From TrEMBL:
EC annotation from Swiss-Prot or TrEMBL: 4.2.1.96
An example molecular function term from Gene Ontology annotations: 4-alpha-hydroxytetrahydrobiopterin dehydratase activity
Source species: Stenomitos frigidus ULC18
CDD domains per UniProt: PCD_DCoH_subfamily_b (cd00914)
Top EC class for this record: lyase
Family statement: Belongs to the pterin-4-alpha-carbinolamine dehydratase family.
Entry keyword set: Lyase
Family matches, as Pfam families: Pterin_4a
The protein's name in its UniProt record: Putative pterin-4-alpha-carbinolamine dehydratase
HAMAP family per the UniProt record, alphabetical: Pterin_4_alpha
Amino acid sequence: MSTLAPLSKEELNSALTQLSGWSVKNGKLHRQLQFASFVEAFGFMSSVALVAEAAGHHPEWFNVYNRVTIDLTTHDAGGITTKDVELARRVNTLAK
Ligand SMILES: C[C@H](O)[C@H](O)[C@H]1CNC2=NC(N)=NC(=O)C2=N1
């Protein structure tokens, strides 16, 4: 099994410049989103769930009504990896 290494500070800062809406909070990629309704928020979550399952990489997230809070980290690596950056990119595409 291959181990994915957490990104260095430099790699992370560089990735963040391409990830609108995301920051690092408690060592995880973090973004809050707001939708027009609960159904829109949940529809977005359903789309992300399919992408996450296909990638074998899953978000930590929290939903209240029309708001979704997402945290991304790679548990197997103990930090933020390219898998999290890739999922964040997909999230941004699906949130549009
Ligand atoms: C076997 C399976 O692919 C692993 O347990 C995956 C599942 N989803 C995962 N998701 C996240 N965020 N981090 C992981 O390390 C991880 N590992």
